[in-house]
Write a structure and sequence with these properties.
The chain contains 15 helices and five strands. The protein is α/β, with parallel strands linked by helices. Strands 2-3-4-1-5 form a five-stranded parallel beta sheet, with helices on both faces. Helix 4 packs parallel to helix 5, helix 8 crosses helix 13 and helix 13 runs antiparallel to helix 14. Bound molecules: zinc ion.
């Protein structure tokens, strides 16, 4: 198996290699852990190896070649449609899975973001997990184990993925991804997710700006603060991450601040703002309110 491009979770690399080598593949797996730490990539490499004629992911057999060109008929990925995985999608899989594999000895389904399965979809999946055809393997990739029915959980081998250690992540970002510097607060925002860190790479400037504004919030007047509103509102697609980052900064302040109560309230205001934006509140107004309320709370 080729885990070269996947960082961290070395224990799981060894475990999956062993499973494939010893031919002790089960019918159901759950790959669990926070988002952005490579669970899906692991699942794909694992799938490729168990489909491979050589059981290695040799890159040379028909199964591997078709896999790499996204044409392997014995491999299917199911993704949420409009935020959830619906019963029709699982029903379709259930019908297909009983048709014998075409070029491989096995047939693999990855259900990505599987914790978005509706209850109906889960019940439907359960039928297959109860009596899977002997060549079938289903890998559920998700973040929250508790969402799944107990009856599904008990039929899957659970593999937990850990977040990448901050020091390791920092050195990867600087050495491999040209990050100039990675602050402690940035690491908190990434929370061990390489994917998140890579996505934020070209946006370092925004976060430096945000840090300047909010670290200084107790010393500015409200007019100056409101003048910075655009830094937040012009980056619409980034808004949730920005709000999350503001709270990273506030949590940091909370540690040394005299005004602990103020920061506790401010953190709550930011959380409420996130909720409001999720509910599609007017962005300009919501951020105005955020800035005014936070400023008032911290300058009493
Ligand atoms: Zn192969």
């Amino acid at each position: 198996m080729n885990f070269e491009n996947i960082i961290g979770n070395d224990n799981n690399k060894n475990l999956l290699n062993e499973i494939v080598k010893s031919n002790s593949v089960s019918h159901g797996y759950m790959f669990l852990g926070i988002s952005g730490i490579g669970k899906f990539l692991f699942a794909k490499e694992f799938a490729k190896a168990i489909l491979c004629d050589e059981k290695t992911g040799c890159n040379k057999c028909k199964s591997c070649i078709e896999f790499d060109s996204l044409n392997n008929p014995d491999f299917t990925v199911i993704e949420p449609e409009e935020n959830s995985i619906k019963i029709e999608q699982i029903r379709k899989m259930n019908n297909k899975i009983y048709e014998k594999p075409i070029i491989s000895k096995r047939k693999v389904y990855i259900i990505n973001n599987a914790d978005s399965m509706t209850l109906d979809a889960q019940n439907c999946l359960l039928k297959t997990l109860e009596e899977p055809p002997e060549y079938a393997v289903i890998i559920l990739v998700g973040t929250n184990e508790n969402i799944f029915l107990n009856t599904i959980r008990s039929r899957c081998v659970k593999i937990n993925f850990n977040k990448i250690d901050d020091e390791e992540l920092k050195s990867i970002l600087i050495n491999k991804y040209d990050y100039s510097n990675v602050s402690e607060n940035m690491l908190k925002l990434f929370s061990g997710s390489l994917e998140k860190a890579i996505n934020l790479k070209d946006k370092e400037d925004i976060y430096t700006e945000i840090e300047k504004i909010f670290n200084n919030i107790e010393n500015v007047n409200i007019i100056d603060l409101l003048n910075n509103k655009e830094t937040i509102t012009k980056n619409k697609e980034e808004i949730m991450n920005i709000l999350e980052y503001i709270n990273v900064l506030f949590f940091d302040k909370l540690k040394q601040a005299n005004n602990k109560n103020g920061y506790i309230k401010a953190i709550k205001i930011v959380e409420d703002t996130k909720d409001r934006i999720k509910k599609n509140a007017n962005l300009d107004m919501t951020i105005d309110n955020l800035l005014m309320n936070v400023w008032e709370t911290l300058n009493q």
